[in-house]
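Box 3.1 A note on notation
Throughout this textbook, protein chains are presented in two layers. The first layer is the amino acid sequence; the second is a token string describing backbone geometry. Keep the layers aligned when reading.
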Amino acid sequence: QVPLVESGGGLVQAGGSLRLSCAASARTFSGYAMGWFRQAPGKEREFVAGISWSGLSTSYADSMKGRFTISRDNAKNTIYLQMNSLKPEDTAVYYCAARTTSASASPFVRDYPYWGQGTQVTVSS
């Protein structure tokens, strides 16, 4: 029942950039860690990046390190995913998620009970 509203997806050429946003309600956002995941057709949902409530601790999947950056603006109840140097293999539906039981992020899908609707990212070659 935690509403997460995503935006910023679209079609971009290889090597380009996109910035995804995910807005949440203030009541459910406060004190919670957040994460970004993605899922391509026929594949399992995979961890992209996570961020603690304070924003001081971040984590990334190995394939995203150096290209993607997660951040949050607690005053706006919003998290972001800056994606640079995009590749065709980055094409997927990207989801934001809230870990409502902890202030620290986790790379596991099972630790996030609430999810956004997903936003499509398509990278052309």
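The radius of gyration is 13 Å. The CA atoms of residues 42 and 118 lie 16 Å apart.
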